[in-house]
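Exam revision sheet. Question 4 asks you to relate a sequence to its structure. Input first:
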Amino acid sequence: MRAALVLWTSALLGVVLFGDALAPHDPSASIGAPWTPPGPGAPLGTDDAGRDVLSRLLAGGRDLTLAALVAAVAAAALGTAGGLAAGWSGGRPGRILTGAADLLLAVPFLLLALVLAVALPPGAAVTAATVCGGAPLGLRLIGDLVRDARGSGYVEAALGRGERVPAVLAREVLPSIAGAATADLVMRFVMALQISTAFAALGFGPGPQSPDWGVMLRQNLPGASLNPAALAAPAGALALLAVTAAPAAGGVRRRAAGRPASRPARSGHRERTSGTGDPADGLRVDGLSVETAAGDPVVEKLSLHAPPGEVVALVGPSGGGKTTAVRAVLGLLPPGLRQTGGDVRWRGAPVPSGQAARRWRRTHAALVDQDPAGTLDPLQTVGKAVLDGRRFPAAEADARALLASLGLDAGRLWTRRAHRLSGGQAQRVALARALLGDPPLLVLDEPTSGLDPAALDLVEQALARRRASGSVTVVISHDRAFVDRVAGQVHELGPPAAEPVRAVGGGARASGEAVVEIDGLVLRRGPGLLLDGAELTVARGELVTITGPSGYGKTTLLRALAGLHPPAAGQARLLGRPLPWRLDGRDRAALRAVQLVAQDPAGALNPAHRVGTALARALTRTSGVTRRRALAEVPDLLRRVGLEPALAGRRPGELSGGQRQRVAIARALAARPVLLLADEITSALDAASAAGILRLLADLRAEGLAVLLVTHDAAVAGTSDRVLRLHDRTLHAHVPDEPARHERTPARWESDDRA
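Answer key, structure tokens:
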């Protein structure tokens, strides 16, 4: 389909730009009486001056198209440049730029266009009108995208390794928004075509002898009844050009999911209990198989039956096909994957495909994706996100009750936006949105990866209520303990991950030399106080773990050390030297020495860059090696984190969440840091992969690496030298027998931290 569209677009542009060479007659010469109907020698008849309509049609598109293209490039370039400046700078400069754009948009466009048409030559008028009407829209669009990109993990990683802002904009931000920027260019082109045609039709275009499509419209309108083709031909040509360009606006640089880096998923089944209700009801999957476009198996012959009231879990290694399987069940396979066998039935009827599947999902199913924060509209408040357009009388009351049942203070969070939520809070907001209305079928993809033990209890209770109501739930999780508590059936996909996380050594590696020392640290998030006068020291070779409920400031602490969230007060020293809190105050050695692996694997990598490109850039920037040498080192870097070197040629969208997390770890390790800040780096990994990462950290600690790790996983915390609890604005030494699973997060802290 895409190849056919490219071929058609190329052929059309060829005819438009070089059609005058195909004209059977001189476009300016009269060959007959005015407005002669189509006939021999003149397939489209003649125009008002007896000239051949077909010849003028073939010759009349080039100048019009080139003028529209120049105007579109000017408008898109100004809009993109303004959007980059407004989105990155924010604050007062950003408000000034967006205010100027809004002011220009407030001027009646038709009036402005007519003034420009009278005051300027035709080509300049088209360009000026397109810029005035299109650049402000582009600035608004690009500015919003840049603001989102600035807070992404890949941009923060680039800043953290010392790249200057122009380089970050050119190498990270622009590639990530290139699809939208190119689509904006295409839309500005269509806009310029319309403006140019309108000017010519009103008499502000080229001279009457010019074979311009807009001029043809104006000249042949009086004779439309005598030779309709003289009017329909240029109108149809303009419409065809615009209709051909429009799909490019939505499809430019759209990346298919491609072949996932995964092993075939074969179902091994363990049933603990059975659900209630008629076995013919519920969800039944028989022999489901999914392949890539190249024929590589991703899911092979998966079968399961979930009767009403059942919770079914899919477990297995990262990249084993779990997410692909549930997306196939819901009819949500991305481009590049296809179902090659099997049958999926819901309540005895086949699950439809195509548009019918969308209607079916709207009625029967809900999905909480692996990246819940990414599914929340950054412009929506929590309340609007949870309601998701629902307007029945008790909707708001039910939504607030759901948030409260998941441990969130609805009163404080209701008007907050997604960027002010911690990872665990965003996860529960997305879950509340899915639970509202009690969907008959709910699919949860890694619903517990960012949750503390207390929040896990609340999610477990929510699933228990669904079982009691007779609803069906499918859960993907690496948390075997959680799965054993909630699921009646467990299906193993891919080779079983037999190796659990276990201790890999501890304090014997610590040399006693302090890598980082913090005194009097005061951290705030908005008006909330997160830490008050905290002290912390991490020695060479030491692994220090920080635990505590979601929303208390654990991630903010790591971001402060990484230079991304300057504290309100406090001092830090790195290897005995003062460590500036802001990135722009750190020298290259300090930037390289402290590396952060963020919590969100989906936002950690630039979707426009291949894995090899991302790792090579990190190596060249932090190690000073040539690009060729860096690319040669990428396979070894991938092997160190348990990934196949073949993944270097893939983009993040082709990886599982666990694979993306390991690539982010590899990128941080490329700098050879002395202090690694790790935020839930094992949450998206299966037990074997997590154990492999911990062994890798143990090896690096033996070489002197200090690690400050945030986790909710007690098994991971058990591998550390020291465990600190962030509670009541203070870092406390962890008491091993403390019943952490039963604590609750006080509501006043629920909205203070973005984790």
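Marking note for examiners. The first helix runs from residue 2 to 18.
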